[in-house]
## 1
Amino acid sequence: MIRLENVTKVYPTSTRPALDDVSVEVERGEFVFLIGPSGSGKSTLLRLLLREDVPNEGNVWVANWNVGRLASRRVPRLRQRMGVVFQDFRLLPNKTVAENVAFALEVIGKPRHTIRTVVPEVLDLVNLAGKADRMPSELSGGEAQRVAIARAFVNRPLVLLADEPTGNLDPETSTGIMTLLERINRTGTTVVMATHDRQIVDSMRRRVVELSSGKLARDDSRGVYGTGR
Amino acid sequence: MLFVWREAFAGLRRNLTMSIAMVITTAISLGLLGAGLLAVRTIDRTEELYYSLIAVQVALDEPTSAGDPDCSGPVCTGLRDELEANPLVAGVEYESRDAAFERFQRIYAGQSILQLVRPQSLPATLRVTMADPLRGTEIVQQFTGRPGVRNVVDQRSTVQDLFSFLGSVRNATFGLAIVQALAALLLISNTIQLSAFTRRTEVGIMRLVGATRWYTQVPFLIEAVVTGLVGAVLATGGLVLGKLFFLDRLLSGRLLANTIPPVGMSDVLLYVGPVLVIVGAVIATLTGYVTLRLYVRT
Ligand SMILES: Nc1ncnc2c1ncn2[C@@H]1O[C@H](COP(=O)(O)OP(=O)(O)O)[C@@H](O)[C@H]1O
Ligand SMILES: [Mg+2]
């Protein structure tokens, strides 16, 4: 589903590569933690998968797309098959919960009757059916993140990318988010989650890919966060 | 499709002050353009009207005017025959002193100037219609100072002043229209940039969930086009009001009645209105497109 082949990314403004010769492969339906301290290159890797940026060297594959070489007019198609959530939720403050989710379908031109049925379904999945008409400012952090996940998942993506989705949440709320991501993973969606939350990684016992200063440091199929930290 | 319209109107509402400024400036520039077009149209009509009417007037001197009311004497017939033989001339009509006075009475019926004029103060004339109205000066040169002739007047040269006045009105209007159009253009461009800036989060999220560039940019284009169209409609409305409450009064007033033909409502609604709508839409679309291309990277 995802394959990085000797990927190197150097930002023009820095001399040290953000990703340094990284090769890694993720099968369809896997759940992968991408760990490493701040600045180790986790977000950069996710950005390359989303084609928010292109690698300097190597190839990035998602499904059958050679993402780094994709013509820019084909990028929307790629992104329509991927979902993404961030630490800061990125909801539109002037739209309701339901509208925020519907937005993701509207902008890719889904017909209205589809949107009308699919949005309540996915809000139900994230346990927010009762808050469809709330504004984001009326939500707790955990609820806001569940809306963001609903938006990322509503179009049934092949891959769900999560960049520190629990970074702003307390441990208890984080557990709820993890349960949700697991549920989504069980529908067959490949999940890649960047985090440096030791507790979450240790409790889930999933595959762990560790980056250290842009280099691939470890790849354990049922890993823990690491020793000595 | 519905979505992009909703976004466009949300954008217009969000920057309401800018939107209003943009619409007003557009309306003013289109209104001036429309006024210019009406002026051109009126000038054409006026010219047509006048060239069919104007003639070279050969006024006869006092002895001939008084002594030969039928134009049967040798001086008058000599002049008439010579004029009729001239290839530049289409036709010659004799108007006696009495006939001139009658016409004068008709034109100025009820006005005080009538009291001042006696038949004796009007000359008999030979009204010469030109085959080519532009060459009246040649007749003037040929017949000025001839025996029996008091003076020769090419009416066209009198009318010329009116035309050059109308022409400068037209030029001034077009000039202002261009300056205003430039202001409207900059304002539209600026508003789109502002609108794109205020909506950058939204557009960022749109791009992230896989919206095409078309989807993210069309709302901005619609904003611009709606501005152009609303501006054009307002401008046309303004011209209708201007016609009803200013032009109609001006052109039917004593000074200009029968001098300049009135501007018809159909000129405003069927000719200028559609032109303004098209010009407004095209200019707004182009401005929007260029702005998005040059300044908005999404
Ligand atoms: N847009 C950018 N421009 C320049 N350098 C960047 C940019 N984004 C990230 N970096 C640098 O690349 C490295 C990796 O960053 P990042 O991928 O954000 O790491 P992480 O998500 O693991 O904290 C860091 O050294 C960071 O400073
Ligand atoms: Mg990061």
## 2
Amino acid sequence: MLKLDSKVPTGPIEEKWTNHIFNMKLVSPANKRKYDIIVVGTGLAGASAAATLGELGYNVKAFTFHDSARRAHSIAAQGGINAAKNYQNDGDSVYRLFYDTIKGGDFRSREANVYRLAEVSGNIIDQCVAQGVPFAREYGGTLANRSFGGALVSRTFYAKGQTGQQLLLGAYTAMNRQINLGKVKLYSRREMLDLVVVDGVARGIVVRNLLTGEIEKYSAHAVILATGGYSNVFFLSTNAMNSNTTAIWRAHKKGAAFANPCFTQIHPTCLPVHGESQSKLTLMSESLRNDGRIWVSKIKGDKRHPNDIPEEERDYYLERKYPSYGNLSPRDISSRSAKEVVDEGRGAQGQEAVYLDFRDAIKRLGKKVIEERYGNLFEIYQNITGENPYEVPMKIYPAPHYTMGGLWVDYNLMSTIPGLFVAGEANFSDHGANRLGASALMQGLADGYFILPYTIGNYIASERPKLVETSHPEFEKAENNIKNMINKLLSIKGKRTVDSIHKELGRIMWNKVGMSRNEKGLKEAIEEIKELREEFWKNVNVVGKNEDVNQCLERAGRVADYLELGELMARDALNRNESCGAHFREEYQTQEGEALRNDEEYAYVAAWVFKELGDWELVKEPLEFENIQLATRSYK
Amino acid sequence: MEEKKLNLTLKIWRQAAPDAAGGFQEYKVYVSPDSSFLEMLDELNNELESQNLDPIAFESDCREGICGTCGLVINGHPHGPIPKIATCQLHMRHFKDGDTIWVEPFRAKAFPVIKDLMVDRSAFDRIMEAGGFISVNTGSVPDGNAIPIPKDIASEAMDSASCIGCGACVAACKNASAMLFVSAKVSQFALLPQGQPERYRRVQAMVKKMDELGFGACSNTYACEAECPKGISIKNIARMNREFIKAKVKTEEIDV
Ligand SMILES: Cc1cc2nc3c(=O)[nH]c(=O)nc-3n(C[C@H](O)[C@H](O)[C@H](O)COP(=O)(O)OP(=O)(O)OC[C@H]3O[C@@H](n4cnc5c(N)ncnc54)[C@H](O)[C@@H]3O)c2cc1C
Ligand code: SF4
Ligand code: FES
């Protein structure tokens, strides 16, 4: 049985990372150019890693299925990035960011990793400023901050409502500089379809060239996956259309343990669904909750126009239930509360939606200030819904958004396959059962700029991995497997479109493995997903051929993986007989309907090892809390 | 919200491969006004696939107007008839029952068609790689607040930086010039103190690459600004021209 070793260094938490850096082995500058590193994914985590490893002197091969690295899903992040700079003098510190993140994650993350994240957070801001990221400024020229859910300090840095865009362009330009210098070679429009493992060690990847259909093989001394999250398993989510699980899922099937797959974040402030043809859900940045007030009518089935509902008939339910955090309560709590009031029949004008209202903020601050803060978000809203949020409250509803789960990694961000590292949303590391706003950008860049460049060096210096030629039988085997899978998909010629199956899977996931879960539903979900998977492999229709641009084939491969991952998510949720963070099991709640954690039995990371389809082995990594006392989360 | 559905005729450019001859094909659709333009194409593709026909190749990703992946010429306008939005943000409520809509790829010598409505815009990346960056290594930087930047300068730089690299400016220009795109990046860095050390080298390197890649010259017709989904101002072009002239005067021509 696999044993998980988190490799957390000994010593006091404040000194772990510093000591670890000192104790890690180094590769001499002259030797670095003898080593090749594959980076799959060029979002925040991947582009920052590729740039930094290139600067250090390694030969980097970077892969993305996008036409350009600037298109990665990270570009869509709106609200901001956290850092414990305490520029506002409001009591922030590394320790407080560490504390907030552990608490926000409902005590299901690893203390040492989270502390390190808080520790390097300040460096990220410095780095991005130096790259020319135009963060918002105060009149005196210093950096501006705003607050985000789950925190009582202002530590979020932002660039209008386009923070992800600016940070990604920063990492992208840093990587471009290395491309220009010949240290990074970018392979765009390539989709990784398999990981090649030789003698138990990651040695390379197999990709499909999305323009020609050619299957290509690449080898390296180490492989990094920075391929993002898997929220699109729900079909409708806030993620970009092409975000998918294929890279990490195929690595999982090659031996990398998958941790906490059921921890998926449902974001409270998204636009409601408009109809069957809907292709994705739009996020309205959580930063709106700084000034917007969330409410529904006190009366069931109230169809009145929101502006006609008088003050005393409005229920500002978050302010009522959680007076100290109010509208800035963490995401899991806000989402569940919205679902509760909608289930009670009090949704906005009878719909699956609640109001997010700026009337009072506009009164208090003036329209100009609100426009400055949220202008582009208001425009997005008006453009999609046709309603003017300066005059009519926005309608919002929760939607799948972020996956805390991902491939298991140790303190060095190495998976259970030696030589395979995982960064950004693709790993499970820092957010426990719930991620706080503005922390994903921080984590992605921490992993890429400040952690991997050290830990990869240590791996190479201690293990001295050898390069395996792509003519090795394992590469050929992987290539053949992929070709067979593609041929199989193309030859089914059934009656169902890929999308119709994906939508059906999404409905199962949303209804039974979504915002609230119970044993019966999860068991049903497992069976339904299995049936749907069979249906897919018998009755899907993948049009066209491999040797061409074939978007239908691309989608089919991704959906095939979701149909397996979905089952594991349900199994993980079923195994976890407690409610924690975003994972809410109806059987485990307090009398007031709050999540009821079970630290005695479930204070562990659930790492799943793939045996065969439908059969996984559960390996537990116990979580120890030495610095922050395990306590019930309270945002009241 | 349920409004009356629309009957529309679509004339869509189909082209099997880069060197194949293309042409318009007609499709009839029946669509909700709440749908987005791309959702309409999704539905159409789903329909085509269920008839075992090749779906229409088009690209999109974020569907929020920020990644720059989408980009169609709709009734002659890059990103469609509504100003300041990307194709993915266009909703069908802007069309009328019975309308005929023409849908084409972005067309420019430097953006060859790959298939149907999909084009190759990697030339933009080549320009950025040539000089669109500030040379700082990870770690060797001062504290964020050590570089004070006036609020108005930061926000002007932000306006230039909000370009999404979609290429509509090129598609809109009769000369297929990339000046708006390139000048947005040059401006962002020329405005900021961090960008000063490489200011003159950068503009020369990027312009040189732009010329090499077959983008045309700018003849000041401003079609680019009108079609840009992010409202990138042509003031950026003026600034870049000044930068370029200054670079020639102040420095010897740099070997870029
Ligand atoms: C709408 C929205 C708003 C958000 N706002 C915020 C915010 O304000 N603050 C915050 O902290 N977080 C926010 N997040 C979360 C955050 O944006 C993401 O978690 C983060 O950007 C993920 O970065 P990444 O580098 O891990 O992955 P991504 O940016 O998703 O990049 C993945 C990369 O991997 C590549 N890739 C994937 N699979 C393959 C494959 N098989 N082969 C080749 N390449 C592959 C892709 O091409 C891409 O380059 C937001 C998320 C959404 C959806
Ligand atoms: S300048 Fe405008 S039109 Fe041109 S690439 Fe940038 S965003 Fe697109
Ligand atoms: S799909 Fe991202 S800008 Fe349109």
